[in-house]
Amino acid sequence: MLKSHIIMEFYKADALTLATELALRGAILAVLNRLDLKIKKDSFIQFEPEGVTATIVGENFHFSIHTWPEFCSCAIDLYSNEDKDFTRKIAEELKIELKAQEYDLKVLNRLFQAT
User: Nearest 5°: CA angle at 55, between 58 and 94?
Assistant: First the structure.
């Protein structure tokens, strides 16, 4: 069974969205809700004076993000049980929601076989 693992770095993103837990949570939840992805557990950590690290575990995915609002950038790790096209859709929606003008994206296909 093929699973998708995407590593992303977004640049020239919206510093205000990346700066606080409240703003980042709203942006991420907007994406997950649009794509009908259900959250099982999440954890958001606010740094001072700004910046956030978050981990979200869902029914068919897990996701982590660390932000550097002072550089308008963030790093995201996304693993999904969905096909790679849907996983890329999640990535694209995050890019749009965070208003990233530039990004690096690496797709790693994970192959699992039942024993």
Answer: 80
Taking phi first (over 0 means left), then psi (-120 to 50 degrees means alpha), and beta for anything else, what does residue 57 get? beta
The predicted model scores a pTM of 0.88
Single out the residue of 79, 60, 63 nearest to residue 25, CA to CA: 63
Strand partners, 19: none
Residues 46-68: pLDDT tens digits?
999 999 999 999 988 899 999 99
Give the whole-angstrom CA distance, residue 32 versus residue 93. 9
Residue type at 25 in one-letter notation: R
Confidence tier at 114 by pLDDT (50, 70, 90): low
Residue (of 26, 12, 18) closest to 49 by Cα position: 18
